[in-house]
Amino acid sequence: MTPPAALRSHHWPTVVLTIAIGTLGGIAAKFAHLPLPMLLGALLAVAAVALIGWKPLGRPVQFPVRLRFWFIPILGVAIGASFTPAILDEVQLWWPSLVALCVFIPLAHFLSFSAVRAMGGLDPVTALFGTAPGGLIETVQMAEERGGDGAMVTVLQFIRVIVTIISVPLFFTWLTGHAVGSAGGATLDRAAFTLADLPWLVAAAVIGAGVGRIIRLPAGFMTGPILCSGLFHLLGYVESAPPALLVQATQLIIGVSLGVRFAGIERHRLRAAALMATVSTAISLALAAVMAFALAPLIDEPRTAVFLAFAPGGLAEMSLIALSMQMSIVYVTAHHAMRIVLAVLAAKFLAKRTL
């Protein structure tokens, strides 16, 4: 089979070396007891190599984004393994939180946009779509359609995710006294994995990802397998979750795929974007903390879970944190899937009102 052009364009010895750098970073992070070590260690190691401009084998660090999509369904299947009949009863209690999310997203976006505009240096279109608390691909497209700086929006959105996935695990580590996911990223307290479960888990990943893409679910490569795996577990066809080693591999791949995005970014643009994205993300995180204290008593969820559900990180990354902490996984994932949709709708609404 001939590989797609997007894969043929990569220098595979460099890709392998990039993954090796990420792996060494993950191992070092484990020894340092960092939270989510394989994800954060790989991200920091690969990003450091990209930023200093070192070119192993004569090329900058690189990783095919398409390969990430082979691993994301694993995370979806692992989350779906937490579906139990009790979950169906819990969902009915989430409506105050879901309603609050509809208020949180446009409020966080407007406050972040106002703060970044006050800092200066960005045109209104770029500032508006660069501060959206979700929907990276969609916001870049909408910004370019309106004459904004698509490259800067990409950097702002990317740094939003980075700041969130670094600060949230560190905050939880300080709060709980132990590193999030430091024990190896164990998946779920389910039945032990057996080869008899493998066909069902693979089917959940393949069918779920295919259906999710066809019907255009938000983050379909992940949400599709979540729903398919959840259905299989609810029906009793399978009881176990994917092995912890596969979840660790997914952490590694996500970390590497994020780290390589620092390659080629001009230093002055990176510094400016980092400052603005940090301010924007801090506003969203502060609002998420307010939501956590206000909503936790109403929905019978711990404040940490509510905070994580409202934190403006990526769906896969926030779900990994929830998975590592064995904490309200379905609740957190459901809110982040809805956040993506709401963030795009809010961006379109604010664009009509402010641009």
Automatic annotation (TrEMBL):
GO cellular component: membrane
The protein, known as: Aminopeptidase
Coiled-coil segments on the chain, per record: none
One Pfam family named in its UniProt record: AbrB
Keywords, alphabetical: Aminopeptidase, Hydrolase, Membrane, Protease, Transmembrane, Transmembrane helix
Transmembrane segments: 12-32, 38-57, 69-88, 94-113, 151-172, 192-212, 219-238, 244-263, 275-299, 305-323
GO BP annotation list: regulation of gene expression
One GO MF term attached to the UniProt entry: aminopeptidase activity
Lineage, opening ranks: Bacteria, Pseudomonadati, Pseudomonadota, Alphaproteobacteria, Rhodobacterales
Keyword field contains Transmembrane helix: yes
InterPro entries from the UniProt entry: AbrB_dup, AbrB_fam
Alphabetical list of NCBIfam families matching this protein: Gneg_AbrB_dup
Top-level taxonomic group: Bacteria
